[in-house]
Design a protein that fits this description.
The structure holds two protein chains of two kinds. Chain A is 36% helix and 14% strand. By secondary structure, chain A is an alpha/beta fold. In chain A, helix 3 packs antiparallel against helix 12, helix 6 packs across helix 7 and helix 8 packs parallel to helix 9. Chain B is globular. The chains are: A alpha/beta, B alpha/beta. The structure holds pyridoxal-5'-phosphate (PLP).
Chain lengths: 454, 510
């Protein structure tokens, strides 16, 4: 086995020093009756070539597309070569969590920079070192809001939040009978301040709204924040497409008290859903309630600047069942990708990418709307995703697109029954005008069904 | 290599006008929608303006201050820092995997679904448990999923129950998880050999409760017990079956933290010794790289009784026989129709990239290689135990498997403590072991070499440990001052926590 450093003479020497004749003798601690009295019923070891072939075969069984117009929380963006090259350095990817700061300054300084960038993009003060993904980031934010708000026990969640984020939230809240998760309705694709006002009461700790929301709509954080704050509730913005933060006012400056969500768009690939990058940024006054790892700046014995894991009194290894969260390993390498990506992008890159995304999405929308079968469902500002009703047969449209190696927008029916027959379209900087024209062309060729007439 | 001792923060290197990314030209009309004008960003804050060269050098220099598995032994106990095969990295980077959207229709993601299904079959055979989900993102997320399965099981039988029992030797994530799943934690004492005590123990007049009396008093309220096996001392819980029986007798379930599964793969299966539900750490046992703090992956395996509660969706394989030869063909799909499911625990399908690596690890090792790896990991740990136990205090004499825990008792006589030993190891060129854990061993030094280490590397590490023990007697100050050869000396963690500086701020704004 190529990964094992076995050599007969050395193996014998090891056993001799230990004082046993063979390795099995060392299993004495495991009672005989509890051992597996056979070999595992699995294939034998394989050469590197064979495994490479098998992995190649599996990867080739997935369809490849000329263009994907599917976003819905996972975005296809360009990843600069420098990101992959840097990530391939063993110093980054093979290291453990930086428990020994003297030989982990690389990771620690990177996290400090990452925290700075995320906090700044969010318009807030403090970010942690990362969370698992967008859905679990919502859970951590909601639980944190309940801790910060002491006696308040209700969390309002806009129906505009990613349906999977809402499912992850529901799973996490289910064991807590004392907590309540209440859905805020959508009106015309967004969360109305009036609906929020009606739902608020003295027990509401926080309100979670998408920014932009799952349907692509840019929620009016300022208006929602005023209403929430008027009743003592915190406003938590949930961003699933952080490229939007290059387009929109930072949530913290628009009215949010906490900002969380999914940051995979920064330098990470689609990867069938993971590894992704949960983020959470909060105000300075709440920093001792933040979950997960946090890196702080300090000095060494000689007064030189250095970085350490800090505020550990919040964490599971110290506080055990009183910890702010159980999270231990997070998404370190995904955060490193985001950090490298953001440094390469800089202010001009991020602004430019945001403009490209907004322009492509607006172009795709206006071209689709030139076709008789597409119709707006609501009229809200959006970034790179939008909803259109389709009057033809969604399945037929999908088949036609797939035949041309184009992945169309998401059929919203299964997730929003009230939006049956509607599709959620996404365009990014990766979509050329030609790709957009080809999906419009395909859609134009699909025979119209005109449901109203049927 | 870079010998620079300081790399300015990227923000301090920013020069307005520099750029590290060129964008394609806008080939469509510029954005016209102005309705959100009042919500448009005006200020790009502290994003740095730097070139690609600046960025690459910045990260390359910083990387030189990190110790990685390729640098040498990384003996963090409980962390299983084994070799990260490059083939696995290459496989995970195949565009067929990386470019696949998580909501792609099942028929267009057959490769991923087959991969997930296949890995599940391997892990089911390895654990001896019939149910599995690959959704949890790390060990702690697996724990939470597992305890929520336990909860759902009890709820389906009437009541969630109130208590989770956890041995005092457990990792901090165990009690933190139980609390996140809405349970109260009661601690179970471990006996002199570090394993779960059935009887109460008297310690200086204070009674520490054993399993029997806790179950006698709280039985019907106990939802389950979270046990790590082998435990955090590397000792196999000899009475694990009896622990399971005692729990099952009161209707409670047994959760196993599988962080130490590297001691058992191919040798013993949790499903065969009474475990109802457990998690695996693909970033430990199955070699997926730790990434400087993740991403990990924490699959949860469970009994048939818990299977209906697994997170949605679960992967299904449909088999058809086609053609004259009746060739079997398989198609795979996600099954969402799971009325008893606890729901989703990850937005999509978990850290899929880690699943690719873990399957590559499994295929490379095969049944024979997996078992050899386990045995070699145990041999390596026992070799270190044999070489160091004359010099370092071994608080627990029981046979140990893949790791060994010493303490600083002997060195403390010279005012040299675990932290000093760890820091001196850095000067000797090694990553220190896990220190001050498990909490039941004061001044613990927890060493897990893994199967990746050769005799030469083990010898070099042991020589360093022995030299340090001599230095503790002859020159304790040397140890107090360590490290002196690392990029930085010891860092002031107290001030860092008392007056936290958690981000850079531009001097102009402060
Ligand atoms: C025994 C034990 N349990 C749980 C964990 C937590 O695992 P993770 O960091 O993957 O969440 C660890 C990790 O160090 C561990 O050693």
């Amino acid at each position: 086995m190529r990964y094992l450093p076995s050599a007969p003479a050395e193996d014998r020497a090891l056993l001799e020093t230990i004082g046993v004749r063979n390795a099995e003798e060392l299993l004495g601690g495991i009672p005989d009756r509890l051992r597996l009295g056979r070999e595992l019923a699995l294939p034998p070891h394989a050469s590197e070539q064979e495994v490479a072939w098998e992995m190649g075969r599996l990867s080739a069984r997935n369809a490849r597309f000329c263009a994907q117009f599917l976003g819905a929380g996972a975005y296809d963006h360009f990843v600069p070569a420098a990101v992959d090259a840097q990530i391939g350095r063993q110093e980054w990817f093979t290291a453990y969590t930086p428990y020994q700061p003297e030989i982990s300054q690389g990771t620690l300084q990177h996290i400090f920079e990452y925290q700075t960038l995320i906090a700044d993009l969010a318009g807030l003060d403090v970010s942690n070192a990362s969370l698992y993904d967008g859905g679990t980031a919502c859970v951590e934010a909601a639980l944190m809001a309940v801790r910060v708000q002491k006696k308040r026990r209700t969390v309002l969640v806009s129906r505009g939040l990613h349906p999977f984020y809402r499912q992850v939230l529901a799973t996490a809240f289910a064991p807590h009978q004392e907590l309540r998760l209440v859905e805020l309705p959508l009106a015309a694709g967004g969360t109305e301040p009036a609906d929020l006002a009606a739902a608020l009461h003295e027990d509401v700790a926080a309100v979670l709204v998408g920014y932009p929301n799952f349907l692509g709509s840019v929620e009016d954080l300022t208006a929602l924040g005023e209403v929430a704050h008027g009743r003592g509730a915190l406003l938590v913005s949930v961003t699933q497409e952080p490229f939007a933060l290059g387009w929109l006012e930072a949530p913290g400056r628009a009215g949010a008290d906490m900002a969380c969500g999914e940051a995979m768009s920064f330098g990470n690939k689609l990867n069938y859903g993971g590894p992704y990058l949960g983020f959470l940024a909060v105000r300075d006054s709440h920093k001792r309630e933040i979950p997960g790892r946090v890196v702080g700046q300090t000095v060494d014995l000689e007064g030189r600047t250095g970085y350490v894991l800090t505020l550990t009194a919040r964490e599971q290894h110290i506080r055990r069942d009183k910890a702010t969260s159980n999270i231990c390993s997070n998404q370190g390498l995904a955060a490193l990708r985001a950090n490298i990506f953001l440094q390469l992008a800089g202010p001009q890159g991020l602004a430019g990418l945001a403009e490209l995304n907004a322009a492509k999405a607006q172009f795709l929308r206006s071209r689709l709307l030139e076709l008789p079968d597409f119709e707006p469902v609501f009229d809200r500002p959006f970034f790179n995703e939008f909803v259109l009703r389709y009057h033809g047969d969604v399945a037929t449209l999908r088949e036609a697109c797939l035949r041309e190696s184009l992945l169309p927008g998401l059929d919203l029916g299964p997730w929003y029954p009230e939006l049956e027959g509607c599709l959620l379209w996404c365009a990014t900087e990766l979509h050329t005008r030609g790709m957009i024209e080809s999906v419009v062309e395909v859609a134009a060729r699909v025979p119209s069904l005109n449901r109203e007439g049927a | 290599m870079s010998t620079r001792q300081r790399e300015p923060l990227i923000f301090e290197q920013s020069v307005p006008g520099k750029r590290g990314m060129d964008l394609p030209p806008l080939d469509v009309p510029p954005p016209r929608d102005t309705r959100a004008a009042h919500l448009r960003r005006r200020d790009f804050g502290i994003l740095p303006s730097v070139s690609e060269v600046d960025v690459i050098r910045h990260f390359t220099r910083m990387s030189h201050w990190n110790y990685g598995v390729d640098d040498g032994i990384y003996p963090l106990g409980s962390c299983t820092m084994k070799h990260n095969p490059r083939l696995n990295e290459k496989a995970a980077a195949l565009p067929g995997f990386t470019d696949c959207h998580p909501m792609a229709p099942d028929e267009l993601a057959q490769g991923n679904l087959e991969l997930i299904y296949t890995l599940q079959e391997w892990l089911k055979e390895i654990t001896g448990l019939p149910g599995i989900t690959l959704q949890p993102s790390a060990g702690a997320a697996g724990e939470l999923t597992g305890v929520m399965l336990i909860r759902a099981y009890h709820v389906s039988r009437g009541a969630a129950r109130r208590i989770i029992l956890i041995p005092d030797s457990a990792h901090g994530t165990n009690p933190a998880t139980a609390a996140m799943a809405g349970y109260e934690v009661l601690e179970v004492a471990s006996g002199p050999d570090g394993t779960i005590s059935f009887t109460d123990l008297d310690e200086g007049g204070k009674t520490r409760r054993g399993l029997n009396s806790l179950l006698a008093e709280f039985g019907p309220e106990v939802a389950g017990l979270m046990v790590t096996n082998p435990n955090t001392l590397g000792v196999f819980e000899q009475a694990i079956q009896e622990v399971a029986d005692a729990l099952h007798a009161v209707g409670a379930l047994m959760y196993m933290d599988g962080a130490n599964m590297n001691a058992l793969v191919g040798v013993a299966r949790p499903g065969d010794f009474g475990v109802d539900v457990m998690h695996l750490n693909l970033h430990k046992t199955f070699s997926t790289p730790h990434g400087g703090g993740g991403p990990g992956s924490g699959p949860v395996a469970c009994s048939a009784a818990l299977e209906p509660f697994l997170p949605v969706p679960v992967v299904r394989r449909d088999t058809r026989r086609v053609g004259e030869g009746e060739v079997e063909t398989h198609t795979y799909r996600w099954d969402w129709d799971r009325p008893k499911s606890i729901g989703k625990v990850h937005t999509y399908h978990g850290n899929f990239g880690m699943l690719v690596r873990a399957l590559a690890y499994c295929l490379s090792h095969g049944a024979d290689g997996l078992k050899q790896a386990t045995l070699r990991a145990i041999v390596n740990a026992n070799y270190i135990r044999a070489r160091l136990s004359g010099t370092y205090h071994l608080p627990i004499q029981s046979p140990t498997l893949h790791e060994v825990v010493f303490s600083d008792t002997r060195q403390a006589a010279h005012d040299v403590h675990t932290l000093d030993i760890a820091k001196r190891l850095i000067d000797c060129g090694f990553h220190p072991p896990t220190v001050y854990f498990p909490l039941i061993v004061p001044g613990a030094i927890m060493i897990e070499p893994t199967e990746s280490e050769s005799k030469a590397e083990l010898d070099a590490f042991c020589e360093a440990m022995l030299t340090i023990a001599r230095e503790a007697e002859t020159d304790p100050e040397l140890l107090h001052q360590a490290p002196t050869t690392a990029p930085l000396r010891r860092l002031d963690e107290t001030t860092a926590a008392r007056r936290p500086v958690l981000r850079w701020r531009s001097p102009e704004t402060t």
